[in-house]
């Protein structure tokens, strides 16, 4: 079930990412804001991974 949720979120992100970047380009006339948007989402993803790993390590779960 977790794998399905992760794959669904990945596909949703890929589907909306291109559209969102085009929309930002149309609003600003520059790809700089679109790249910053992508960087922001990647930073959020990294933060979520760090929190998950930190909580797993704190609870004593061994990761393979």
Give me some keywords for this one.
0% strand, mainly alpha, 64 residues
Number of strand elements: 0
Mean pLDDT: 89
Q: What's the tally of helices?
A: 2
Oligomeric state of shown chains: single chain
Structure description:
With 64 residues, the protein is mostly helical. The protein is 88% helix and 0% strand. The protein is built from two helices and no strands. Helix 1 runs antiparallel to helix 2. The chain starts with a helix and ends in a 5-residue tail after the last helix. The model has no long low-confidence stretch (mean pLDDT 89).
Summed up:
The protein is built from 2 helices and no strands. The chain has 64 residues and is mainly α.
What does the secondary structure layout of this molecule look like, with pairings?
Blueprint (H helix, E strand, L loop, with lengths): L1 H27 L2 H29 L5
Helix pairs in contact: 1-2
């Amino acid at each position: 079930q977790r794998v399905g949720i992760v794959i669904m979120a990945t596909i949703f992100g890929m589907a909306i990412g291109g559209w969102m970047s085009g929309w930002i380009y149309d609003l600003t006339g520059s790809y700089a804001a679109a790249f910053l948007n992508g960087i922001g989402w990647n930073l959020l993803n990294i933060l979520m991974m760090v929190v998950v790993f930190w909580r797993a390590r704190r609870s004593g779960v061994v990761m393979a």
